[in-house]
Amino acid sequence: METKKIVLIIIFSTSLLFLWDAWIKERERLDKLAAGPAVSTENVQSQQSHDALPVPGETLASSQSDTAQVPGAEGTPSAVTPRLLATGEQVKVVTDMVVAEIDTVGGDFRRLELLKHPSRENKEIPYALLQSQGSRISVAQSGLIGDSLPNHKTEYKLDSDTHNYSLAADQDKVVVRLIAQEVNGIQVAKIYTFHRGSYVIDVQFEVKNLGEATVRPFAYFQILRDNIPPAGETMMIPTYLGAAIYTEDEKFQKIQFSDLDKNKADYPQNADNGWIAMLEHYFVSAWLPEQKTPREYFAKRISDNLYTAGVIAPVGAIAPGQATSITMPLYEGPQEQDKLAGLAPGLELTVDYGWLTVIAVPLFWLLSFYHEWVGNWGVAIILLTMTVKILFFPLSAAGYRSMAKLRLVTPKLQRIQEQYKSDRQQMHQAMMQLYKEEKINPMGGCLPILVQIPVFIALFWTLLAAVELRYAPFALWITDLSSPDPYYLLPVLMGISMFVQFKLNPKPTDPIQAKVMQIMPLMFSIFFFFFPAGLVLYSLVNNVLSIAQQWQITRLYGQPAAETADKKKVKAKRKS
């Protein structure tokens, strides 16, 4: 029993340390942002060069023939600061899934709203996955690399008279076409194709060579964004914000902003497969190159809190009088696990389950199954928690039986402790002999708990990462399972359930340990004030089921004689 309590204290204490560390880091980050970037020559130079074009490395460049025109950064770096991107005319596109704004300067996606996902600030306003206003910047940029070729600083012209496009009821797609000014006999068109019922937007360059020499341009596609977490994120539960990449050889990798700050990011750069993305809680922006085509990935820090991640791909040789094109799909949408897998290999891994993905994936599948059955994500969480508890019942029952046996010999253990309190070695030998005579495994109550811990942690992360819970109602006052309980009733109930669970166990012999166990429910209730309601609901249901299970085992196996006698004395005093 003491071993079990020690394990629980270690788990709870570690959780508290992680939460405290996350809070400290969040405060430091917010203080730094509030203070603003330090003015230094290095910072000025970094900001001035943020618009410099990406340059393909030797491996990708050497894939072209020796007679190829080697592409490079064009002209001098722009002096435009990250917060003052050049702007031109705005082109608005409305489909059944998104509202997008394209700037004619560079043809950038300057804003993209997800119509089926409300913002945290106002439920009536769609969530903006891409934006470039105020202190926030997250844009999708693309261009060509080569002498006088259009890039994300080039002014394009619309190939139509309208600046507003809408997906009509009888249409399956909307096409927007921008035209760059012809330079040196090179004509370039930039074409965007929006599809009905899809978050994938095709970005295409059409290049026609009217000059006298063969050209071999490269195309680049990048996501430029800041390191400010989305609105509504709690500092108590840090979620991933940063770049990510996937290749067949290296599989899924996160590219941390902190590693880019130190220029220590290690990721595959040259491949003929995979994708690169920017991730935030619940959503992903990803460039999805065609498989089995050469490409070079890049990620770098642009300024104090501005980063870019993207891909460079060869357009191919274009002889005089010939034309060619390159298309790069852009996914801008939620991290819906069941749909991402069909878009690109490994894209479903952007759903951040941490190191327990192998366990979390089937748990989410079961959660989705229950939701399809009952139509309520809160009820699905309850059913999933009950299912996991039932599956682990034999293991839990064995652990509780072992603890119940330990409770029965508690008086004998206390006598041994009194008898040999000055000789710990002798005390240990006597206790081991008692365990042997009573056929008790002192670790029998601890091991079953340790085996279950990874599963319950995976369930925790499953609920935290599920975008399906965003604005999903449960019942009564719980209208959003991804946000904290507005009235804190669930955290309070969770704390009460934890207190009852501890009371079912015998009091620790160590007074310090006893005090820790007493304040633990209060501490966790306070921390759970900031947790999403779905996570608190899971913890509450899990505690209630554990209480019922523990009470049943205790009822079957009885209590130590000493405890029974104490309770009888208390009852006798009350009667008198």
Automatic annotation (TrEMBL):
Keyword Membrane: yes
Bias (Polar residues) ranges: 40-50
Keyword Repeat (UniProt): no
Subcellular location: Cell inner membrane; Cell membrane
InterPro entries xref list: Membr_insert_YidC, Membr_insert_YidC_N, YidC/ALB3/OXA1/COX18, YidC/Oxa/ALB_C, YidC_ALB_C, YidC_periplasmic_sf
Keywords of this entry: Cell membrane, Chaperone, Membrane, Protein transport, Transmembrane, Transmembrane helix, Transport
Domain Membrane insertase YidC N-terminal, residue spans: 91-366
GO MF annotation list: membrane insertase activity
One of the GO BP terms on file: protein transport
Function recorded in the entry: Required for the insertion and/or proper folding and/or complex formation of integral membrane proteins into the membrane. Involved in integration of membrane proteins that insert both dependently and independently of the Sec translocase complex, as well as at least some lipoproteins. Aids folding of multispanning membrane proteins.
Assigned protein family: Belongs to the OXA1/ALB3/YidC family. Type 1 subfamily.
Subunit relationships: Interacts with the Sec translocase complex via SecD. Specifically interacts with transmembrane segments of nascent integral membrane proteins during membrane integration.
NCBIfam families, A to Z: PRK01318.1-3, PRK01318.1-4, yidC_nterm, yidC_oxa1_cterm
Name of the molecule in the record: Membrane protein insertase YidC
Organism: Nitrosomonas communis
Gene transcribed to yield this protein: yidC
